[in-house]
Design goal:
It contains 13 helices and 9 strands. It has 381 residues and is of the alpha+beta class. It has 3 domains: 2-55, Molybdopterin biosynthesis moea protein, domain 2 (Alpha-Beta Complex), CATH 3.90.105; 66-297, Hypothetical protein af1432 (Orthogonal Bundle); 305-379, no CATH class. A 5-stranded antiparallel sheet has the order 8-7-6-5-9. It has a two-stranded antiparallel sheet with strand order 1-4. A two-stranded antiparallel ribbon has the order 2-3. Helix 4 (100-128) packs across helix 5 (134-152), helix 5 packs across helix 10 and helix 6 crosses helix 9 (215-223). It is globular. The two termini are 21 Å apart. The relative contact order is 0.10. The model has no long low-confidence stretch (mean pLDDT 90).
Length: 381
């Protein structure tokens, strides 16, 4: 038997657990099928070293362990938990004894390493992964989007790290409110409007109190809601008067907000969101930044759903050298039957030509490790 650590996104309030849950001393904490009742209970389980046990074929251990180590999805889960802890410390001003600046920079270093390892998998996860709290996954995904543009604009590494650090922390000034708004269908009240308009200043102030001294980082946080036409906030700066890094963050923040589902509405598809960016280029967002981002992620970004010439419905998993011929995995047959395992299709072959974009499937196997080949094929037989 092998112990498998349980991470934050393995447990959901109100849902039964899928296995017997043990602590780090192998004492039984929850029986399979029991329900987790609160976030506090989840945090207590994690603090106790929650794990479950599986039987492992010794011949397959090495390959799958190596794939798990390399998997960006396992590593994002850890980063999300660490970021949530850091943002909580900053927002509650309980940072004594913590080197917050270094902790955030360390998160940026890990995120850059992930981006350099498999950026297509991360772009795909940005579009289809819905298992995390918005207040935590939004900054992580926004930082990834910033990295994409930073690389394309040849931003140096120091400025890239500052930009990504700003992406991770720019909304800490409304950390609690952001989660409320994520599920709120009605109009904002006056106090909520005030908090939103104040959050760039409050975020920068909280970061300074937490020991962040980097001027570029703080200024990008302060400017991330300014707009090219001067209609942004808090200082209504026009394009030429605010930083390039702030323009990149503003674009990334807006794009991720558009594709993110709320409790009361579905997020836009990647194509719909890219069209919106194109419409507001030169007004709300920097035209050069917008066009560069649109070109870089492509017509069919990873995480897009497409219809193939043979009638199958597929998920784009990787960009190709030819933007019209990405790598895809077919999920649904031409007669509407869901495949047990995704089928890799070569879209450069006429039979698998992309016929066009389609709406996301309402239900499909969201095992991202399987979709992006981070599962040992021998375990699927």
């Amino acid at each position: 038997m092998e112990r498998v650590e349980i991470v934050r996104n393995d447990l959901t309030v109100g849902k039964p657990v899928s296995w017997d849950v043990y602590d780090r001393s192998d004492r039984l904490l929850l029986k399979k099928g029991m329900t987790v009742h609160s976030l506090r209970q989840i945090m207590q389980l994690l603090d106790m070293g929650a794990c479950h046990l599986i039987e492992v074929d010794p011949e397959t251990v090495f390959d799958q362990e190596m794939l798990d180590v390399l998997s960006p999805f396992d590593r994002i889960a850890t980063l999300a938990l660490n970021l949530e802890n850091v943002l909580t410390l900053i927002s509650t001003e309980h940072t004594n004894g913590h080197n917050i600046q270094q902790q955030v920079l360390d998160l940026c270093d890990e995120l850059i390493e992930l981006c350099e390892t498999d950026i297509d998998a991360l772009i795909g996860a940005i579009h289809v992964d819905e298992q995390y709290r918005y207040t935590v996954i939004h900054p992580l995904h926004t930082a990834v989007l910033c990295y994409i543009v930073a690389q394309k604009t040849k931003l140096n590494i120091d400025k890239t790290v500052c930009l990504m650090a700003a992406g991770l922390t720019c909304n800490v000034g409304m950390f609690d409110l952001q989660e409320i708004l994520h599920g709120q269908a009605g109009q904002l009240n006056e106090e909520q409007k005030r908090q939103i308009l104040d959050h760039p200043k409050k975020s920068a102030l909280l970061l300074k109190k937490a020991g962040v001294m980097n001027k570029l980082w703080l200024e990008v946080v302060l400017q991330h809601h300014e707009q090219i036409d001067g209609s942004g906030y808090p200082r209504r700066l026009q394009g030429k008067y605010f930083l390039k890094e702030s323009r990149i963050l503003g674009m990334a923040d807006k794009y991720h907000a558009m594709i993110s589902s709320r409790h009361y509405r579905k997020g836009l598809t990647p194509t719909q969101a890219l069209k919106q960016l194109f419409k507001v280029r030169g007004k709300q967002i920097d035209e050069t930044v917008a066009l560069m981002f649109i070109k870089e992620v492509g017509i069919y970004p990873p995480g897009s759903f497409v219809r193939l010439k043979n009638g199958e419905t597929a998920l784009v998993t990787r960009r190709g050298e030819d933007s019209m011929k990405p790598e895809v995995k077919s999920l649904l047959s031409a007669n509407g039957k869901m495949y047990e395992q995704p089928k890799l299709r070569n879209t450069s072959k006429s039979a698998y030509d992309i016929a066009g974009l389609c709406l996301p499937l309402s239900s499909f196997n969201r095992d991202l490790k399987l979709l992006w080949d981070y599962v040992d094929p021998s375990l699927l037989s």
